[in-house]
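Collaborator request, handled under Task 6.
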Amino acid sequence: MFATLLGPLPRPTLPSDAPAEAVLETVLEAQLEHGLAPLTDAGWGPGDDPVAAWRATSSRTDELVKAVVVGPITSGRSTTEVRAVLAGLADAGCAWIEVHEPATTTIGVDPEARARFGEAHRALTRGLAGVHLSLAIVGGNADEAGIETILAGAYASLAVDLIDGPDNWRLVAQTPQDRGIVCGALSTKPRSDDSPELLLWAAAYAASTAERGPDRVGLATAGSLAALSWEAAVDKLRRLGAAARLAEAPPEAQRRALDPRATGRRSRAIGQPAPGGPRRRAARPPQRDDDPT
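Structure tokens returned to the collaborator:
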């Protein structure tokens, strides 16, 4: 189980004249301190060149650093132009590229929009070997577009916002077993319920779909934390990293750390409350035929 960001961080509380390198190092240190990986420049990479920004970021740590690239549907750039960026990152040695396509939430059932998305992402990802490609969808529901549209490209994992897009659970349930799921289950809003029960429930449910298993599941923020104060954002990183570590802990350690109502012996999964306990979920999943509730 791993934890990562699905969006930028706010500027750290450094002096206004702090160099860009100091800002980047601070956002990396905050992720490292709380056990996040893969790391990201969190929107503070130097310059406008994604390849140069990734190189500058990855040179500051021995940990895995992912590159984040806005997809062609959202950015309005040509597929050829965005693909050149992906190819440049792959040639530079970047092992994980996250393609952000929040515009996917606007596709719906429109057949022409589905076809455009599928064609663009097949062309975007074709032939890019030796790199983990992850498609990230934040900001709302994209389930109406259908999993055939969403995963038309050669993506090894799907990252979805499960807070503002709770119906994205349908995409999780339909994603093939050999693809990873990154659960954007930590709210980006201040004073949200960031309890570990919610995050572990999301991870356990994603692992259970298609018999995926926990090795193909990660936890993440549901999007950008840039609107928060630095202190509030770091607290969310702390909670996210702690939940990922707890997901790896033995059952007894989990029981000690969680609300006992979430781990009763009659519960079917982490986060499924014991009878009489409150239902505390990261988001509502689709009901399955084998679910007696």
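The cover message to the collaborator said: "The beta strands are 2-4, 67-70, 96-100, 132-137, 157-161, 180-186, 217-221. The two ends are 28 Å apart (CA to CA). Please let us know whether this matches your experimental observations."
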